[in-house]
Amino acid sequence: MTHAENRRHTAAAAGPGAGSSRPPRTAPGEGGGRLAGLTIAQESALKRFARLKVGAAFLEQGMGKSRLAVELANSRAHRLDAVLWVAPYSVLATVQEEAAKWDCRLPVRYVGYQTLSQSDRAYLDVLQWAKGRRVMIVADESTFIKRRDSKRHQRLTEIRKHADYALVLTGTPLTRDLWDLKRQMDWLSPKIIGTDDRAFRYRYFTLHKKVTHEGERVWFEVYAPNIAHLKSLMEPYIFEARLDVGVPETSREYEHEVGARTQTAYQQERDNFLDAWAQWGEEIALYQMLGNLKRIAALDPDKCASVAQLVSGRPTIVFCQYLQEQQQIADNLTDCLLINGSTPDTERDELFRRSRAEEVPLLLTYGTGSYGLNLQHRSSCHFASLPFDFGQVQQARSRVRRMGQTRALTYATHLSDLGIDQLVVRNLQKKDWLSRLVRHEIDPTTIL
Hints:
Blueprint: H1 3-7, H2 40-49, E1 54-59, H3 65-75, E2 82-87, H4 92-101, E3 108-112, H5 113-118, H6 120-131, E4 135-140, H7 151-160, E5 165-170, H8 178-188, H9 197-204, E6 205-212, E7 215-222, H10 227-234, E8 238-241, E9 249-256, H11 260-279, H12 283-298, H13 301-311, E10 317-320, H14 323-331, E11 337-339, H15 345-355, E12 362-365, H16 366-369, E13 380-383, H17 390-397, E14 409-416, H18 419-442
Parallel strand pairs: 1-5, 1-8, 2-3, 2-4, 4-5, 9-14, 10-12, 10-13, 11-12, 13-14
Antiparallel strand pairs: 6-7
């Protein structure tokens, strides 16, 4: 889909609209025409979902997922009483603005994934509310429900049982492996893929075994030839589109030497792990060691100072994993804007406003800045450190990679000269390959 096609406007249409004095509108595919201002992607998605009770809109960030959900709800206004819109808490305000902007004609109840998982009272209230209404439920950024054993997945699944329609929205449907897709499809309807976890594992993964003097290690890897079969099951319920921003995009990589103290701390952490592994062999020790090594590498003072030197005086975005890392970079800058989870909402809004006019780095943490923000007034991102989460990186890139971007885009990755950062890069590359392979099966025009 080209940039020009995404921006094409279409003619207005009319149909039934419950609870509104405006002329009614009919759903696409149900006798109605086309709605003004929709992109080709949005029109096509509406047509795909018109006669379905469930659907998954895999639209990249900046392609108008919120408007798609609103128009889908409006097309069903005569069959529904309300919309339940579930999203990450950090983007709820943005979602509410979008729904109001596109004139949702049904009452909308907004709730954060975190609220559902952390508050029994809020969960029970929402569940009781859904039981007494004809509801369409929207799971925005649906990879938040990819863990079956998580409380948010279980509670949202229980609420889903009482909804008449269900829609998932995300630009990154796969952030780890094929289980991400199964969890989202099973939430929509267990009938889509139609297998339990054991059958799914042996159909779409290959079992590997390795025997060492410490025992037998067993693991599963994706079996690529069967992805086409998985695609055939999901295809009727999925609409997938990629964003062509119409501007050049460049990726760069910088490697920074770390100081002697960091080298010592890194080696000590690694040795402590090897001692613990030899004694106990517990897998949790491996994950703890990887997390500690990543933190040691990210917080190296020399690296943080080097990153600061490269972004100083530039109107760029700098994404950080750790608050201490963010603060160290800020301390090495003459001027910058800094936002993280502890920044009050009013101050945060003011800092984002200032970022449109001030030619200084905007320092964000992934948790605060990677979801829901439109920062297309900036055209470059620096990743001071990388998370293992592929979806977080893609979401962060999408803060500037949006419709309406007119300047060439640059993404700069900063790595230490320690092995852990190379491991993270290889891990993300593997997830990127799998994501592109799945996209290719959904849409063969995808370039691998």
